[in-house]
């Protein structure tokens, strides 16, 4: 699933279209019914920004288009009228370039969803105090691994970066918020921000534990464990030796 770093990278790639009046098409039938093309066609694009895992495109007239990629969506910037196969959800066509959205199941002219998001982990600099306050305002019986994926508490972190940040901070995903010190939470958030910023700038995703179940921990050699966590049952990956804290008892 695209996480915050992929969305911030998409926002960068769309910058050449900012300032232009765009031809807007929604070729995919499920996108056509949103009415987005009729509302935006011919409007000037004022700004593109990533907020957590969302991309917000601000057009003149106060119109804001929100795109969320869910599992398989992706943005591509091509030359105007370049060759492509398949039926994209959205095409934003400028004088020289066009941005194409594939498999973008969330496409709406409404930013109310974004107002409920927690602070963006990829803000520059990230507001770790504000995120810490959000985590402390949540149910303290929640496991840290579950809380990090709750976009209302901190926006942008997905399954990959939660696993990697917790491993670097030596915190088990199963430990409860109420059992963690502020500096432990701050270290975890700082690692997430640093890793994701590095990925955004380099395009590289260096992985120690994510999808490495059974492989040796790069730090101590103990086999990495994995197990579904939380209501959404997203798979957590951790080293049982470096990251002490058992699955039992966590929400
Ligand atoms: Zn280890």
Notes on the structure:
- The radius of gyration is 20 Å and the shape is elongated.
- It has eight helices and ten strands.
- The protein has helices at 4-13, 29-32, 36-40, 112-115, 128-137, 144-147, 159-169, 182-202; strands at residues 23-25, 45-51, 54-59, 63-68, 74-79, 90-93, 97-102, 106-108, 225-229, 234-238.
- The protein is an alpha+beta fold and 251 residues long.
- Helices cover 27% and strands 20% of the residues.
- The strands form three sheets. It has a four-stranded antiparallel sheet with strand order 1-6-7-5. It has a four-stranded antiparallel sheet with strand order 2-3-4-8. A two-stranded antiparallel ribbon has the order 9-10.
- A hairpin with a 4-residue loop joins strand 9 (225-229) and strand 10.
- Bound molecules: zinc ion.
- Zinc ion is lined by residues 217, 219-220, 222, 239, 241-242.
- Residues 217, 219-220, 222, 239, 241-242 line the site of zinc ion (ZN).
């Amino acid at each position: 699933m695209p996480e915050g770093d992929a969305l911030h990278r998409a926002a960068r790639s769309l910058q050449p279209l900012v300032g232009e009046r765009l031809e807007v098409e929604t070729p995919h039938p499920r996108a056509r019914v949103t009415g987005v093309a009729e509302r935006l066609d011919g409007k000037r694009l004022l700004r593109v920004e990533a907020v957590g895992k969302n991309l917000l495109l601000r057009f003149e007239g106060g119109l804001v288009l929100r795109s969320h990629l869910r599992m398989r969506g992706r943005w591509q910037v091509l030359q105007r009228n370049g060759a492509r196969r398949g039926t994209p959800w959205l095409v934003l066509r400028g004088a020289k370039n066009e941005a194409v959205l594939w498999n973008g199941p969330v496409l709406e002219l409404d930013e109310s969803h974004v107002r409920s998001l927690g602070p963006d982990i990829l803000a520059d600099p990230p507001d770790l105090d504000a995120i810490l306050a959000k985590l402390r305002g949540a149910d303290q019986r929640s496991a840290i691994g579950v809380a990090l994926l709750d976009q209302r508490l901190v926006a942008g972190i997905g399954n990959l970066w939660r696993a990697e940040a917790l491993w670097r901070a030596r915190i088990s995903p199963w430990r409860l918020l109420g059992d963690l010190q502020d500096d432990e939470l701050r270290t975890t958030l700082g690692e997430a921000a640093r890793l994701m910023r590095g990925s955004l700038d380099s395009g590289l995703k260096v992985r120690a534990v994510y999808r490495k179940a059974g492989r040796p921990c790069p730090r101590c050699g103990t086999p990495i464990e994995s197990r579904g966590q939380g209501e959404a049952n997203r798979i957590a990956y951790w080293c049982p030796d470096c990251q002490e804290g058992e699955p039992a008892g966590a929400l």
